[in-house]
Amino acid sequence: MLDYLLQIIPTIAEGLKVTVSLFCIVWVLSIPGGILLALLRLSKIPFVDKIIEAFVYLMRGTPLMLQILFMYFALPIITDGAIQMDDSTAAVVTFVLNYAAYLCEIFRGGIQSIPRGQYEGAKVLGFTYGQTMRTIILPQMFKRVLPPLANETINLLKDTSLVYVLAMNDILRITKSIVQRDFDISAFLVAAIFYLIFTFILTNIFNYLEKRFSVYDE
Fold it and tell me: Which intervals hold domain ABC transmembrane type-1 (predicted)?
């Protein structure tokens, strides 16, 4: 049993390249995307807030797997081949759009939780709207939204397994192929341990950040 596990661990670990790279790219792109969407939703530009609200509703109201399949299979058909992406590009674009929509609501709530007096104080000091958001509002917002941001980050790690529908060699697809080949479910245990390790790391990072940047003084 131990020999078999030692034999399949390197093979399953090869899927880390896809899983980790997808996770990192989406996480890096979806955060500024979510901030931009949140600011647009809070803007007073006519119709913009309604358009962003409809987009967020669409992305949050439909399954992520359906969105992946639509982006990869349906979009080329609808556009008559004008828009066609490879599997990795389709996965990244879909994940970024989906998670930017979720983060939009988190960031919007965080921005709205900042007392109005801070905006007025910044205006008295001569700060522009951009300077106010960049130097005063957004830093405080990040401190307040760390717990829900941590949840979405962990969800993203687990959701990367959905790319198996595009035949991308992530951890889950490689694990499934090993189980089908060897008729042994031990590979599922190895995959679960990989996910648990990364979840443990992410959880501890965010726990540290929450303590380090706590909104409330002890």
Answer: 16-206
Q: Which amino acid, 44?
A: K
Q: How many residues does the chain have?
A: 218
Domains of the chain: 1-213 (1.10.3720.10)
pTM: 0.92
Q: Are 15 and 195 in contact (CB under 8 A)?
A: no
Q: What share of the chain is helix, strand, coil (3-state, %, to 5)?
A: 80, 0, 20
Whole-angstrom distance, CA of residue 196 vs CA of residue 102: 23
What are the pLDDT digits (tens) for 95-153? Answer: 999 999 999 999 999 999 999 898 889 888 889 888 999 899 999 999 999 999 999 99
d(C-alpha 207, C-alpha 202), whole Å: 9
Residue 68 neighbours by CB under 8 Å, 6+ apart: 90, 91, 94, 162, 163, 165, 166
- d(C-alpha 15, C-alpha 28), whole Å: 20
DSSP label at 127?
-
One-letter amino acid of 146: L
**Close Cβ partners of 125 (under 8 Å, ≥ 6 residues apart):** none
Q: How far is 155 from 167, CA to CA, in rounded Å?
A: 21
Q: Give the gyration radius of the chain's Cα atoms.
A: 21
